[in-house]
From TrEMBL:
GO terms for cellular component: cytoplasm. Pathway: Isoprenoid biosynthesis. GO terms for biological process: isoprenoid biosynthetic process. The lineage of its organism: Eukaryota, Viridiplantae, Streptophyta, Embryophyta, Tracheophyta. Keywords: Isoprene biosynthesis, Magnesium, Metal-binding, Transferase. Belongs to the FPP/GGPP synthase family. GO terms for molecular function: geranylgeranyl diphosphate synthase activity; metal ion binding. Its cofactor is Mg(2+). This is Geranylgeranyl pyrophosphate synthase 4. The chain holds residues 62 to 366 of 366 of the full protein.
Length: 305
């Protein structure tokens, strides 16, 4: 059978992602137990354990591991960032926001549990993420200084970036004057922020120095932006294929995207630049230890769905 844990074996990305996602799923399952009142805990677990690629927690573990940190010490931070990602999805799907009926191939939280429970499940996940991060990371023997720093980073990204990105996105919908700077602001805050939080927290609990933490922060920002640019490109190319036309749905919808603003070729160049800039940040690290982060960046840049 395939083994990604042997240091001499070549790095196998798919096995790595599969193993890590499994470990994350187990840890999430154990972190959030059903208590009284059961409905709210079941609602939280419904969305938390609904699948998803687990890109953020895996980035957190890989970042920690690059600096010599143990997976078990990074797992609470990895789970915390996925809890927050999940709560943003629950709230984003609500009728007062995007009003979506399906998420991760399943009915959205409020469709199953009602709007009242969905709002509270999101709120509860948000607070519980910080409790879990603080208590479980400390229990792993990580120093109080590093635990406090990780809590500060995550809360800063959530309160300072995530909400700002969502607000900017909502306010720019239907507007024709959204420029490239505004679009980048939305993506950096709405999407890159949690990927950055994941990588930075991994570096902190993994014992990284300030220089290492900052290099990994820049890596994650590039990867986060790359994620969105590629998403925009795929939206156009996928829908063109589906429609058998040259113009995809994104070129006619009211959502601002990179291809719409700068064209598909230039968008591909931006993606290429971001990918290179991300990989440059890892140049000073041991290439074998950095293999998972390099592979994740490449996967995000070159995926085709
Ligand atoms: C934090 C208080 C507070 C409110 C949140 C609702 C909101 C404010 C923000 C929403 C942000 C949002 C929906 C960002 C989209 C991020 C994104 C790229 C989602 C898709 O991520 P994937 O592809 O999804 O990693 P899976 O399902 O694989 O996890």
């Amino acid at each position: 059978s395939k083994q990604s844990s042997s240091p001499s074996a070549p790095f196998d990305f798919e096995t790595y992602m599969f193993e890590k996602a499994n470990n994350v799923n187990k840890a999430l399952d154990q972190a959030l137990v059903v208590k009284d009142p059961t409905k709210i805990h079941e609602s939280m677990r419904y969305s938390l354990l609904a699948g998803g690629k687990r890109v953020r927690p895996i980035l957190c573990i890989a970042s920690s591991n690059l600096l010599g940190g143990r997976e078990s010490a990074a797992m609470p931070a990895a789970c915390a960032v996925e809890m927050i990602h999940t709560m943003t999805l629950i709230h984003d799907d609500l009728p007062c926001m995007d009003n979506d009926a399906v998420r991760r191939g399943m009915p959205t939280n409020h469709k199953v549990y009602g709007e009242d429970a969905a709002v509270l499940a999101g709120d509860s996940l948000l607070a519980y993420a910080f409790e879990h991060l603080a208590v479980a990371t400390a229990a792993e023997g990580v120093s109080p200084e590093r635990v406090v720093r990780a809590v500060g980073e995550l809360s800063g990204y959530v309160g300072g970036s995530l909400v700002a990105g969502q607000v900017a996105d909502i306010f720019s919908q239907g507007k024709s004057d959204v420029g490239i700077e505004r679009l980048e602001f939305i993506h950096v805050n709405k999407t890159a922020s949690l990927l950055e939080a994941a990588v930075v927290m991994g570096a902190i609990v993994g014992g990284g120095g300030d220089g290492e933490i900052e290099r990994l922060r820049r890596f994650a920002r590039c990867v986060g932006l790359l994620f969105q640019v590629v998403d925009d490109i795929l939206d156009v190319t996928k829908s063109s294929e589906e429609l058998g036309k040259t113009a995809g749905k994104d070129l006619v919808s009211d959502k601002t995207t990179y291809p719409k603003l700068i064209g598909i070729e230039k968008s591909r160049e931006v993606a290429e630049e971001l990918s290179e800039e991300a990989l440059e940040q890892l140049a000073g690290f041991d290439p074998v230890a950095a293999a998972p982060l390099i592979a994740i960046a490449k996967y995000i840049g070159y995926r085709n769905n």
